[in-house]
């Protein structure tokens, strides 16, 4: 199949709609990462998404809708605090998990009785969702376990030949995936950290937990159990206290003839030669926005990325650290 990249306009949106109506997948930009979208109501369309990505069949998808979409047609909205969260953060990088009405394909939620719904704020995403006016099931538009795409080119590199159309909305400004938050219980529980932090949610609702699976327990957000977001080159991860060890590792790998690059926050860069650094930046916003872009760049130029965890661990950085740890995980 021939894959085209097109700017978002009335022609490309009409084409996207035709492809979706014929059961194909279309990639589209959001403020977090690019999504691989299909008609959430159709088994064949949803199955195709799993096939294209090579995604495990027990890792449920998020349904994307435009801001005026009738939420009550998809889910039971039982908790008053969920409306407060929507008012505070949507459209935006927050996915809410509700009790499902079963209006979309069962394959979307992998047999769970819940449905994850997201209303992206990206103008191009809103235009696309409004134009097609259907619930769009969409995971990140990359081969399963690889780094999430933050540009149309990243999508093309991973998925060319497997989908007909990539809608190009430029570089994603958020940089890491949406926060996934369960709103079925008495208070919200963050299942996946992201750009809307647990602290920000608690400010609205008074209370918010972050779910950490206990060993042996069935995970509540199945996607979180996988190694993820990984570059194709080798990685070595060091904590923010291990700057000296990271430096030694850098020198020893370099001595052995490997192309070694260091990924870390700006204030830690001093110890390393300028031409071998991947600079995450200073603020938590910058670090979230730069992480995947730099991992994509790194895998093209490095044999090994030596990554050093940023010092700040809470707020949005919880999401950044979660992605960085998984990107550098063994399995
Ligand atoms: P991705 O599409 O790669 O951004 O991953 C979607 C994330 O949302 C994964 O971590 C899934 O486990 C999670 N997710 C999707 N649907 C549900 C659901 N119904 N309940 C809990 N987590 C979900
Ligand atoms: Mg993903």
From TrEMBL:
Its main location: cytoplasm. GO terms for cellular component: cytoplasm. InterPro entries: DHBP_synth_RibB-like_a/b_dom, Sua5-like_dom, Sua5/YwlC_C, Sua5_C, T(6)A37_SUA5, TC-AMP_synthase_SUA5. Residues 10-196 form the YrdC-like domain. It catalyses: L-threonine + hydrogencarbonate + ATP = L-threonylcarbamoyladenylate + diphosphate + H2O. L-threonine binds at residues 32, 64, 138, 178. SUPFAM superfamilies: YrdC/RibB. One of its GO terms (molecular function) is double-stranded RNA binding. GO terms for biological process: regulation of translational fidelity; tRNA processing. ATP binds at residues 55, 59, 114, 118, 140, 148, 192, 229. It is an enzyme of class 2 (transferase). Keywords: ATP-binding, Cytoplasm, Nucleotide-binding, Nucleotidyltransferase, Transferase, tRNA processing. Its EC number is 2.7.7.87. It is found in: Cytoplasm. NCBIfam families: L-threonylcarbamoyladenylate synthase. Belongs to the SUA5 family. Required for the formation of a threonylcarbamoyl group on adenosine at position 37 (t(6)A37) in tRNAs that read codons beginning with adenine. PANTHER family: SUA5, THREONYLCARBAMOYL-AMP SYNTHASE. This is Threonylcarbamoyl-AMP synthase. The lineage of its organism: Bacteria, Bacillati, Bacillota, Clostridia, Christensenellales.
């Amino acid at each position: 199949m021939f894959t085209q990249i097109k700017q978002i306009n009335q022609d490309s949106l009409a084409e996207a709609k035709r492809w979706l109506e014929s059961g194909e997948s279309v990639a589209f930009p959001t403020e977090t990462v690019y999504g691989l979208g299909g008609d959430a109501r159709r088994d064949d369309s949803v199955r195709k998404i799993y096939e294209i990505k090579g995604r495990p069949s027990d890792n449920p998808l998020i349904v994307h809708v435009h801001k005026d979409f009738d939420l009550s047609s998809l889910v039971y909205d039982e908790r008053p605090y969920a409306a407060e969260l929507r008012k505070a953060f949507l459209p935006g990088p927050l996915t809410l998990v509700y009790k499902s009405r079963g209006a979309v394909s069962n394959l979307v939620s992998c047999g769970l009785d819940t449905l994850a719904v997201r209303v992206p704020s990206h103008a191009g995403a809103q235009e696309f969702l409004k134009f097609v006016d259907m619930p769009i099931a969409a995971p990140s538009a990359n081969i399963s376990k690889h780094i999430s795409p933050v540009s149309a080119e990243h999508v093309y590199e991973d998925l060319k030949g497997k989908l007909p159309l990539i809608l190009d909305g430029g570089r994603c400004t958020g940089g890491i995936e949406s926060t996934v938050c369960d709103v079925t219980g008495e208070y919200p529980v963050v299942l996946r950290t992201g750009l809307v932090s647990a602290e920000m949610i608690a400010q609205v609702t008074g209370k918010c937990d972050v779910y950490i699976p206990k060993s042996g327990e069935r995970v509540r957000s199945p996607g979180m159990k996988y190694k993820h977001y990984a570059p194709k080159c080798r990685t070595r991860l060091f904590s923010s206290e291990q700057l000296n060890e990271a430096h030694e590792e850098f020198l020893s790998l370099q001595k052995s003839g490997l192309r070694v690059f260091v990924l870390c926050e700006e204030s830690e860069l001093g110890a390393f030669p300028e031409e071998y650094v991947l600079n995450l930046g200073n603020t938590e916003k910058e670090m979230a926005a730069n992480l995947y872009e730099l991992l994509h760049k790194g895998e093209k130029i490095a044999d090994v990325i030596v990554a050093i965890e940023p010092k700040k661990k809470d707020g949005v950085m919880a999401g950044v650290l979660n992605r960085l740890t998984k990107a550098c995980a063994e399995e």
